[in-house]
Amino acid sequence: MNSIYDSRQRLKYIFIISAVVIAIASVFVSDLLIKDLAREERQKIEVWAEATRVVTSEDPSLNMTLILQIIQGNTSIPVMLCNEEDSVMNYKNIKLPEKNVNEFLYKKVQELKKKNQPIPIDMEDGTFQYLYYDDSINLKRLLIYPYAQLTVMAVFILTAFLALTSTKRAEQNKVWVGLSKETAHQLGTPISSLIAWVEYLKMKNVDPALLEEMEKDVKRLETVADRFSKIGSQPEPVPLDIRASVHAAIDYMETRISSKVKITVDEPEQPVMVLMNDSLFAWVVENLCKNAVDAMGGQGNIRFCIEENAKKVFIDVSDTGKGILKSKFKTVFNPGYTTKKRGWGLGLSLVKRIIESYHGGRIYVKNSEIGKGTTFRIELNRYKG
């Protein structure tokens, strides 16, 4: 089974996966650079340590100017030179506090011990000195860089995703409104013509039973045109007993679906008041019934269960059809999604739009089991008067 929506979903996932791969590759490269820089800094400190050892030597042949230049050339890497008892003998690129200097130096030594492997300096007199060092400010900045990259990439992906979603939704809304208005307009002329023909046939002594059926169909077409004309506008809702609306829509559907389909309604005895548009809500019931009949292959049971609490009204619509995969619970409401060989896949999308946009409610797949059936739940705000 293929659908327009599935193709769009695949493109969306390809975009996200590509962005994630780029982010991972970027972090991997950054990690290599960080390791190379850390290795280079350690080599510098080892040279600095050797220069420190040499400067204490009494060998007059050594070029002390070069050694001192090496030692003084370190302007970015914090270092501390300690004896075997961890007493600080010298330090560089470390900012001391105004108070408790000795305590600070002691804690700093313990901190650097854990940070990097110390470099031992053989003083050639049976003793050793130890050089402790920290990462340079540049290396610390580079360590943060991958996280900054990931954050920027995440923001980019989220922004792009929201932009694509909002653009698609805006396009869908324009298509919905345009098609609906055009459909209502196109239906207007033939409906007017049919009304005139019915009146003409009445004067020709045509069988009244036939004319009555024709009038029903014409009224039905008027209802359909009225529904389409309301899409894109905000029809004024009125408080109605939702039980009556459900029954009226079911009565209409029962004469137009297979006799092998049984529809039952479980409802409270008292009125269930909801602020609603009766014509549009009837469209919801009809579409859910058609969807259930298709899922059941023209035979089975459809059950409406109406319940309410202090704030909400719940309408569960259950069928004994083939069921829906859990991964498709949200997908079924998207335009273009259909399991039938024919059809546009707009029924449930239209239902969702009517419930959410015109009634301030929500509709979702409450539960479904493959081979046993599906239950859709509609949630609406209860009217308190």
Brief synopsis:
55% of the residues lie in helices and 17% in strands. With 385 residues, it is α+β, with helices and mostly antiparallel strands.
Can you describe what's shown?
- The protein has 385 residues and is of the alpha+beta class.
- Helices cover 55% and strands 17% of the residues.
- It contains eight helices and eleven strands.
- The chain has a five-stranded mixed β-sheet with strand order 6-8-9-11-10, covered by helices on one side.
Which keywords apply here?
385 residues; alpha+beta; 5-stranded mixed beta sheet; 4-stranded antiparallel beta sheet; 8 helices; 17% strand
Distance separating the two termini: 47 Å
The unreliable regions are none
Query: How many runs of DSSP E, i.e. beta strands?
Result: 11
Shape summary: rod-shaped
What's the Cα radius of gyration? 39 Å
Q: Could you give a short account of the major beta sheet?
A: 5 strands, mixed
Element string (H = helix, E = strand): HHEEHEEHHEHEEHEEHEE
> Strand share of the residues?
15-25%
- SS-based structural class? alpha+beta
- Mean pLDDT score: 80
Lateral strand order in the biggest sheet: 6-8-9-11-10
| Helix content percent band | 40-55%
Number of helices: 8
List the helices and strands and how they pair.
Layout: H1 4-55, H2 64-72, E1 79-82, E2 88-92, H3 101-115, E3 119-122, E4 128-133, H4 137-202, H5 208-230, E5 238-241, H6 242-254, E6 261-266, E7 273-276, H7 278-296, E8 300-308, E9 312-319, H8 347-359, E10 362-369, E11 373-381
Parallel strand pairs: 6-8
Antiparallel strand pairs: 1-2, 1-4, 3-4, 5-7, 8-9, 9-11, 10-11
